[in-house]
Amino acid sequence: MTNQKVSSLNDLRVAFEELRHVNPMLELVERNINGTDHNVFKNAPPTLRDLINTVQLLMGDFPFINDRGKQYQFSEIIAKAKSISNYLAEQNLKPGDSVGICMQNSIDWVIAFLGVAGCGITCVPFNSWWKEDELAYGVEHSEVKLIFVDQKRYDLAKNLNVNLVVSGNVDGAASMDDALNTSADDWPELNAKDEDVAVVLYTSGSTGLPKGVMLTHLSIVNSMLGFYTLGELTTHITKEPLLQVENASVIINVPLFHVTGLITQFLLSMLAKRNMYLMHKWDAEEALKLIHNEKITNLSGVPTQSWDLLNHPDVDSYDLSSLIDIGAGGSARPEEQVKQLTEKFNLPLTFAWGMTETAALGTIHRGESYLERPTSCGLPVPLITEIGIMDENWNLLNTNDIGELVFKSPTNTVGYLKNSEETAKTIQNGWLRTGDLGYIDEDGYLFIVDRKKALIIRGGENISTLEVENAIDKHPLVLESCVSGIEDEKFGEIVGAMIYCKENLSSQEIKDFLSSNLAGYKLPEVILFSSNPLPRIASEKIDRVLIKQMLSDHKIND
């Protein structure tokens, strides 16, 4: 590892000034977006279709996706995507309409997304772990006119009032193969505009109902170029390659319906000319084999996945020397894990903070700087993004003062679908309230200390405490419940629940009751029963701090 490091935000600013004069991709121009002036990339392709065309023009053909051992070239994928685009046009779908995807990670997921984006239609990637009721809500709320599903998700969607295209063979249903047989020499004539909504991503919110985060073509393309810029700046300073490397490859070990999987792994791989190895379900041993056999260069995901690699009993049996980066996001790595990973793999680690609402772009931390400040989330992209700490009245606070983290960037969401009230609470004068509490030090590094939102982040998955409480409270023997995130060494947090019941219940009975309505990752793993009303504070509200402590103690002693 090198001793060169990014010591402050000013280092990035200096590097940006040096590079923007020689790299036309880094040229900026001011633009008013929703009433606020932002710097955007002057030479950025306007839409995702234009981005795809630009990548083809500049980079030619390259190995792009490996799915279950079968390799696909970029040109093959784009040809298939054009067929999907023209199929959708034949269904009289056009820009302004919405089309969903509900599949596990697969080649068909990628083709469907590029096909939808390529004809300017809004894509709605649904959580493939959702149950039928959750999917029904998403379909109704987003008003998708068609969904691409795999065979497993077909059973969840077949009774919904929406057209389906199935990846696989289902009698009487339109198939992906039929769509791919649509003649297509080029994209359909119609395309989106850069400020049209490209993607709606659902994220669990403190209201209990998933919120649809609207991301425009402009925000997504600028996010990708923001990541490209961060890679170029850190490489310029540290001399450690990150994105622009020969024979680059990455394991896609995060669901593609996540903003991380979609933007920082999938779409960014187009810019980085990376070969993507699709993983359908995280498996540390499979990941080790892929790195060893395929000479994988990049691995990123949630911290639990780094933890799994580090602690795999056979890790020393594999040659992992091809790796140039192990990245993480979603939740913070424990400080000791940062040290252990660095010592074990002897390469620079990366940590990034971002949100669905910011199109994944946020701050980044890497190498020696990360080792020196392992509890920090890193630095933002200068000139493109700003971070600040504000009080409840939207007043910016001073260095090292704790308040709510706010983020200003052309990548920010334009708002929540059909939720103007929440949008107004969250966005003001271009600043986005993140719900995270933190501070910025004198060198510009961001530190997050807590969350305002009632969310649990389990291995990178956002879980609404209210949603789980509402599901528990539907049990006929439950009088009240309180759900809290419990610290966990592997997942960062797990779901804990304290439940006041009329009669005795078992943990398994609760889990069985919830399993038909909640995705598996949302189920409580620590359950504490009470024969009395839950403890209260002076205002008679449930004492969530005390209950969180009681659940933590119960986990330790269990």
Folded structure, characterized:
With 558 residues, the protein is of the alpha/beta class. It has a domain at 457-557: ANL, C-terminal domain (GMP Synthetase, Chain A, domain 3, 2-Layer Sandwich). Helix content is 34%, strand content 26%. It is built from 17 helices and 29 strands. A 9-stranded mixed beta sheet has the order 4-3-13-12-14-15-16-17-18, with helices on both faces. The protein has a 5-stranded parallel beta sheet with strand order 6-5-7-8-9, with helices on both faces. Strands 19, 20, 22, 23 and 24 form a 5-stranded antiparallel beta sheet that branches. Strand 28 (492-501), helix 16 (507-515) and strand 29 (526-530) form a beta-alpha-beta unit. The chain is globular. The two termini are 42 Å apart.
Q: How would you concisely characterize the structure shown here?
A:
The chain has 558 residues and is of the alpha/beta class.
